[in-house]
Amino acid sequence: MRYLALATDYDGTLASQGQADAAALSAVERLRLSGRRVVLLTGRRVDDLLAVFSHTRLFDYVVAENGAVLYDPRTREQTCLGKPPSEEFLQRVRELTGDSIARGKVVVSTCLSNQVAMLQAIQETGQELQIIFNRDAVMVLPSGINKAGGLEYALRKLGLSRHEAIGIGDAQNDHSFLEYCECAVAVANALPSIRQLVAFTTSGEAGRGVAELIEELIANDLSRMHGRLRKNLLTLGLGSDGKPITVAPYGVNILIAGGSGSGKSTAAAGIIERLIESAYQVCIVDPEGDYGTLPEVLTLGTPYYAVPVNQALTVLEDPAMNVNINLLGIALADRPKYFRHLFPNLQAMRTRTGRPHWIILDEAHHMIPAGGGQLDSVLPHRLGETILVTVHPEHVAPGALSLVDVVIAVGHAPADTLKAFANVTRQTLSWPAGLSYESGHAVVWFPRGGKAPFSIRILSARVERRRHLRKYAEGNMRDRSFYFRGPAGRHNLRAHNLAIFCQIADGIDEETWVFHLRRGDYSRWFRSAVKDPYLADQTKRIEQRHDLEPAETRNLIRSFVEARYTLSE
Q1: Do 281 and 399 share a domain, yes or no?
Q2: How far apart are CA 102 and CA 79, in angstroms?
């Protein structure tokens, strides 16, 4: 399935005049039976919603108060995603509106005529708040809180990302989450601004429109939108006219091939960067350690340590984590066997969560060599969003090459590269007159499209590999050192740089390690002393993962540090 989750607004979308449409609710039940997840979003407070709607258990989560509260219908637990309003602000807004407000756990709402009073209260109290409009109502929320943020939180708890979600709504406060979803839809009664934003508008209004969308989703996974959502297309490079050459981000397999030093890694790194920028999760299988310093990618494995497959899968459970599996610790002859174990698990994870969105197999002939025998039983009928990188296409299993939709030939002999691919896959190649190697360019061929190969300009990665200050890696941070003290201050072990931090972390007892982990001490140190927000954010994710064993958290945090800092120089 392409779309694994539906996010729907309540008032004006699932419901009219506060009452949910029966046909829409029946459709939601059928959608759940298809294996998909459903999230309900509303500007209402949870108690207000429950007073008029008794079917919340049809939904995996309810995002209430315009993104400020997450409600779990099974446990009835409410989680605030923003700070409650201050008493100073509440007092002033009551004075200015004649106490004509409704207060939730976080949101403060009133009728549209009081918008000036709301703005005045914000200005007078100096609060960092924002005003959100929803037809004839106005809401005040902490800055940055909206339905998109609430939906992102809900999807992450479900193990999904925005690229698996379809959103449907009708009004101003739906704009953020509709823009966030991979595909956005409006009901027929939606405001003009919402209809302009979305991919299409249903013929039915409110609940009938929701039911209409669900029926199409169940019937064909919204196949008519495949490759038509321009904001989600993947850019391969620039054509001769300077316009992007793009492919759909789903259902496409790419081969990047060319001689050693021809620019394969440059082309692949640029594509990987653009995927990550668009929040697609990537999993790189890296036999030669070429991708260990890519930004926002966690490298697992070293020349001396082969990462277990289950550990890599555990990291990938977080939709925000991108992983590079370094195979230098695995003998060349054993790599196909490792891949035979890894790949079916990645495919199973994709079936369940839609992720990792893209798999990159560098030096693909190491994992799926021609004449690999047992590999035929591993390869599915479709690879699905996979990039194969190799020097010689003929050294890759023919079954894998037969699934390729796009070939990017780099280097001085693109014609030879494409001929080798065509010979293995038994396809006819018509080489255009005058097409030849050009510096900074590659030749692209869509073998299933009937179009001759053509030249594109390669777009390299825009972000330079980050170089870190030696003082954090190996110097003396003095008063900004980290101290492993543990419960009751039993230790006083000082880490005056990141190298010493990793050494102590490897040898410290489990109780002390977990003590600092659960307090968030590691991420706090990385943020305030090392001044590395990215490292701090990723470490905080690990600190909050209670499904990981202590040893796994040590390995992950150390891997992040080693990936971002050169500790061996």
Answers
A1: yes
A2: 19
Torsion of the alpha carbons at 99, 103, 108 and 114, rounded to the nearest 10: -30
User: Are residue 445 and residue 556 in the same domain, yes or no?
Assistant: no
- Ramachandran area for residue 332 (φ above 0: left; ψ -120 to 50: alpha; else beta): alpha
How does residue 470 score in pLDDT terms, banded at 50, 70 and 90?
low
Q: HEC string of 405-448?
A: CEEEECCCCHHHHHHHHHHHHCCCCCCCCCCCCCCCEEEEECCC
Give the residue from 1, 346, 342, 4 showing the smallest Cα distance to 155. Answer: 4
Distance CA 222, CA 435 (A): 38
Phi, psi (5° rounding) for residue 389?
A: -120, 125
Quick check: is 318 in a domain? yes
Question: Do residues 355 and 281 make contact, with C-beta atoms less than 8 angstroms apart?
Answer: yes
| Residues 19 and 66 occupy one common structural domain | yes
User: Is residue 310 domain-shared with residue 199, that is, in the same domain?
Assistant: no
Residues 271 and 161 in one domain: no
Asked if 301 contacts 309 with a C-beta cutoff of 8 angstroms, the reply is no
- Residue 266, burial from CB neighbour count under 10 angstroms (0-12, 13-18, 19+): middle
- CA-nearest of 154, 148, 152, 153 to 169 is 148
Domain boundary among 458, 478, 496: 458
490 plus 380 within the same structural domain? no
Q: Are the C-beta atoms of 353 and 346 separated by less than 8 Å?
A: no
Is the pLDDT reported for residue 375 higher than 60? no
Amino acid at 324: N
Q: Is there a single domain that holds both residue 40 and residue 187?
A: yes
**434/7 Cα distance (integer angstroms):** 51
**Is residue 326 assigned to a domain?**
yes
What three-state secondary structure class fits 11? strand
Q: Point out the domain boundary residue: 142, 166, 187.
A: 142
464 belongs to a structural domain: no
- pLDDT of 554 > 50? The answer is yes
pLDDT of residue 152: 96
Cα gap 274→387, rounded to integer Å:
14
Q: Is residue 82 part of a domain?
A: no
Q: What is the CATH number of the domain that holds 113?
A: 3.90.1070
Q: What is the count of structural domains for the chain?
A: 4
User: How remote is the C-alpha of 264 from its chain's centroid?
Assistant: 25
Is the peptide bond preceding residue 249 cis, with omega within 30 degrees of 0? no
- Specify the pLDDT at position 99: 81
Q: What is the 3-state secondary structure (H, E, C) of 450-500?
A: CCCCEEEEECCCCCCCCCCCHHHHCCCCHHHCEEECCHHHCCCEEECCHHH
What confidence tens digit (pLDDT) does each residue in 408-451 have?
999 999 999 999 999 999 999 999 999 999 988 999 999 998 88
DSSP secondary-structure letter at 396? B
> At 20, which CATH number?
3.40.50.1000
* DSSP class of 215: H
Both 137 and 150 in one domain: the answer is no
Structural domain range at position 135: 87-142
Burial tier of 528 (Cβ tally within 10 Å: 0-12, 13-18, 19+)? exposed
